[in-house]
Amino acid sequence: MPAKWRRPGLIAGVVLCLCLAVCAIFAPAIAPHSPDKQHLAHRLEGPSAEFPLGADKLGRCVASRLLYGLRPSLGLAVSVTLLVAVVGVVLGVTAAYFRPLDALLMRIADCFFAFPGIVMALLAISILGPGMVSLVIALALPGWPKYARVARSVALGLREQGYVEATRAIGAGPVYVLRRCILPGVLPPVATIATLGIGGKIIQVAALGFLGLGVQPPTPEWGTMLIKGLPMLGTAPHVALSATTAIAMSVLAFTLLGESLRDALDPRSGLTAWSQLQVAA
């Protein structure tokens, strides 16, 4: 295995992300209790052998709820990130290759950049109402412009390369050129930003759940667990702290993976993913 793939950060990120995926997939087998089962005799009980992370105010197992809460958080983060990455890449390379569309598509992207992502998400949910579909739309709307910018920036450089000119000279159509010549060069930086973006989406899902606009009860969700545990922070801190730690560890896992992927795929670059976005803009 090449040395660039043996970076400690990359290995740690891969291991943590795999652990998250395993916990999400096998939550029913790993969880010590049903996430909704109430054990009223153990209300607000601290960590014990029966309840590894304690119980909440309704006597529900916090560890079980964390494991089941990983499913909507990770599932939404990964699926929305894939969606916005695909949309952004398609629009970005289209803008770079078909120059008459460039100004129109990039001005539309600028309009989305003008609003903070959380504000746009709140606006979308307030119009569509709480629900899984509206949550996906709310998370996807502010996400695609950064991928479009990065894809356009890379594609603009690639379209002037000699091998692309030669491919066009022998009669290859635009679809072939985009698919075989430009897209392979666009995917590595987009993959890096998408990996980092999953951590950001986990935070957004938790933030919307904290505000009561995300995943709705009775489905366990980390942001909801956090807001429910804050009033009991003095008497039963394990409820809020468990949710906070789960969010932090998940974001750390994808941050390690994304940063290490950036260094492995482009070791000569000293730019962070945010710097790449700034250059692309």
TrEMBL record:
Provenance organism: Oceanidesulfovibrio marinus
Keyword list, A-Z: Cell membrane, Membrane, Transmembrane, Transmembrane helix, Transport
Family, similarity comment: Belongs to the binding-protein-dependent transport system permease family.
Lineage top rank: taxon: Bacteria
Membrane topology classification: Multi-pass membrane protein
Compartments in which it is found: Cell membrane
Lineage: Bacteria, Pseudomonadati, Thermodesulfobacteriota, Desulfovibrionia, Desulfovibrionales
Name by which UniProt lists this protein: ABC transporter permease
Keyword Transport attached: yes
InterPro entries: BP-dependent_transpt_permease, MetI-like, MetI-like_sf, OppC_N
TM region positions: 74-99, 111-141, 190-215, 235-258
SUPFAM superfamilies: MetI-like
Domain spans labelled ABC transmembrane type-1: 70-258
